[in-house]
Structures
1.
Amino acid sequence: MQGLHICQSQGGVTGASRRAVYNPGTMVSPPRLDLILYARPGCGLCDEARVTIGALMAARREAGLPTPTLVERDIDTDPAWHDAFFSTIPVVELGDRRIELATSPARLRGLLAETLDGVPT
């Protein structure tokens, strides 16, 4: 294909590649990633993580930065999730990165910056 180039960049320590197709005058972004929050009802730490994530995502939107879609998964609805995450919720996944006990705004901000912006943390 003449005039069409594939650009790849490596993201942070995970090595996850992101692709964008460059066609002179046009840049197509990679598909948007989902930010997955594994939580359960009645979990105070999960509530704290939810508030922190909401604030970080709002700040990214206001700054014009890529903002993932938040997908919440109730670990009580799936025995495999319950077994895997019960002792470490809230758990946040973005791409191939995971943070357990995800309540630190700095760690969550770093995950977003590294995974979405390619900024090493």
Note: The first helix runs from residue 44 to 62.
2.
Amino acid sequence: MVITRRKLLSGISGSLLLSGCGRDRKREKQIRVLVTPRVTAAVAYLAHEKGLFRDEGLDVQLEERQTQVDILPPIVAGQADVALTGFSSGLCNAISRGAKIRIVAARDELKPGCSDQSALYYRPARFPNGLEDLHAWRGSRIALQGETEMVAFYLDQLLAAKGIAPSSVEIVRLRVEEAVAAASTGNLDMFFGSGRPEYLKGGLPKNVARSDIMVELLGDFQYTYILFGGKLLDGDPGTGTAFLRGYFRAARRFVAGETPRFLDDLAARMHLNPDLVKSECRSNISTTGELRMENMSRWLGWAIEKQHIQPGFTMDQLVDLRFQHAAVQNL
């Protein structure tokens, strides 16, 4: 869903006609924010719907892209100011080529039974003694889906922790629907999180089970972030700080139970049960944006080992902590 300038200006004009007073909208600083249609984007929509960005003197326009891969090019090109996305080697490589983008705050983290971002779904018929049975892994067929590197990262971390050689398993690429169907018929042994909240509420096929083994391995691992582009990084730091302050205030309200209309819209578009979407746990949402540098180091180490990023890329090139530090001072 794209919140257009026409709709935004229409709402502003109506409020000015009714009130005849208030903040001078012409002085609001425009910020274009890129999001993907996911439950975790709800915080930004809540901030927009409740006027929390406007209270900070910002005219925020939320623009949707279907995948994280679609988000990176516009912000690299300076066509957007903020992106809500996850880690990617493409981000680091763009920075190496001179792109003015940085991670400025954290958004979401892994929690057991909360979201299915890192959940591993498997066939108990293949693993009757659970996923700790290393012999059952050999020859298993595992599906990775999506364009992002997250699931590949999770699988590599798991195989390394269990001492399982990657060559001993078969990796295939399937869409979520294909993976569920293949697992149901016994043609697939595992697949990672699907973005379907009903799977957290007993909606899985009877011959498929869920494991939070990745949370047990990685702990409260941060997996999505807020990126700033050049206009905010090089401009008045107060503008970027104001954006994060509005976002964090919305995050607190979202974690406390307040729900934006966006989730109803998302459920309708994705053919999800709206009650399940809105009842998903929210304790995985960061309310301060504090970055865990050890998590990011793990991402980077993996990407460099896989030769997705050139050796020598450092954390200092990737993050800018100024805005998050300033924003949390006045929450």
Note: Residues 1-25 have pLDDT under 50 and may be disordered.
